[in-house]
Structure to design on (70 residues):
């Protein structure tokens, strides 16, 4: 027959464990490449835009405060 570690089709438990582990690692690598692809799609000049809009909002808040205190 065979040892206790072999299944009916001849694959050992350790073979199945290795296949599952390799599948998980492959899936994680695919996720990594998707994240890298999406990160490379973001334009680098986008960082300047939020700073500018934040300053405009701060000025608006200051103007509102000055109007309410006057």
């Amino acid at each position: 027959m065979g040892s206790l570690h072999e299944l009916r089709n001849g694959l050992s438990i350790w073979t199945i464990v290795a296949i599952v582990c390799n599948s998980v690692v492959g899936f994680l690598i695919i996720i990594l490449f998707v994240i890298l692809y999406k990160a490379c799609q973001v334009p680098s000049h986008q960082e300047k835009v939020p700073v500018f809009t934040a300053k405009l909002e701060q000025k608006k808040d200051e103007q509102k405060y000055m109007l309410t205190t006057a």
